[in-house]
Amino acid sequence: MEGVDKSFAPLAGKTVLTYSVELFAGMPEVNRVVITVAAESIDRVKETAEPASAGKLAGVVEGGAERQDSARNGLRFLADIVSDESVVLIHDAARPLADAGLARRVLEAVPAADGVVPVIPVDDTIKRADVGGAIEATLYREFLRAVQTPQGFELGYILDLHERAAAEDYRATDDAALVERYGGRVVTVEGGVANIKITRSLDLKIAEAILGGST
Hints:
Layout: E1 10-11, E2 14-15, H1 16-25, E3 33-37, H2 42-49, E4 57-62, H3 67-79, E5 87-90, H4 100-109, E6 115-121, E7 127-129, E8 135-138, E9 145-147, E10 151-154, H5 155-168, H6 175-181, E11 186-190, H7 201-213
Parallel strand pairs: 3-4, 6-11
Antiparallel strand pairs: 1-2, 5-10, 6-9, 7-8
Helix pairs in contact: 3-5
């Protein structure tokens, strides 16, 4: 992102973060929104998110050194204000184009699983390389999926897994991987092709083009 904080990057007249806040604030199924950020950004996030939250912003929480630490901090905050049986959606604010239909598919699947992830098929051929860059194998694409957020869980369950992982210093690439590690069942629902992750400056231009085509 060439030094730009992607959460505050401008996207079609709003910040990237604002889109996610508006998404969940606009869903009647969602009662509270919690955002985890670096300590120095807390005040700025409050100023940005509060007007977009429809009164649902429950807190802006200091994050941690890595994404997993930040998710755990947010879950701990939620556990102090809602019941362990509550359903929680964990979303990456770098995905500003998620929509309510996708989020509802995740919510509806949570009662029958330990974790729910939205996915899309993998279009590219995926190869596994060794540490030197030489190709070791071509993976069977039919069984591969690209995973997105929001991911859904029961609050008490996923927080317990985060605490166990922290005690073991185990690092996962997403929250669902913790469910996999500790023997839980993760199911998939249909993701969204437009639900891209803002990782590079080019992704902002792609997101702007998608938004322009949807208006």
